[in-house]
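pasting input
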Amino acid sequence: GQNIDQPTEMTATEGAIVQINCTYQTSGFNGLFWYQQHAGEAPTFLSYNVLDGLEEKGRFSSFLSRSKGYSYLLLKELQMKDSASYLCAVENSNYQLIWGAGTKLIIKP
Amino acid sequence: EPEVTQTPSHQVTQMGQEVILRCVPISNHLYFYWYRQILGQKVEFLVSFYNNEISEKSEIFDDQFSVERPDGSNFTLKIRSTKLEDSAMYFCASSPRGESTYEQYFGPGTRLTVT
């Protein structure tokens, strides 16, 4: 079967750094996405990894290890507006996006 | 900045009725998708569409569902006979799928409530 695992919920402090992990088992791999979703809204794109390594984009970075079926999203200098769910999604060899259940990130002052 | 739009924002229908959810993808995008998200659950892939035909569909996308691109701008999802369990948020997405980007741009969603 196809499976994406990520923690259900994490809590962090404003200004701090948080790492959200994602492990996956899918039928093939074309790339891994991280999306942010605020409650009641559509997912918005954060990052895309297709090769191993770290992709940095401002306060957000995403890492991929294809051999380990593992990725993480790193958020630095946390702001209150970063409180949201973070969704890990893998595009399989059939070009379908398989989604994790999301990690709800709670930022405290 | 171009964006994906969806109408209506909220649709209430009775069980057994047909509904059509509408999407206008970003104009130069070539790949279109429908997803659904039941309240509190994960996003689920329904179908992808390219070159005027379905390219992939999930197990959820059974004979009750159909998609169409009736003109050059709209992309619709039809549910023929709605069931209570079809109540969900339905997201449309589009992508240029060029060599440098595989990003899917999501519309704001249509909340479907089946009573």
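fyi The mean pLDDT of chain A is 94.
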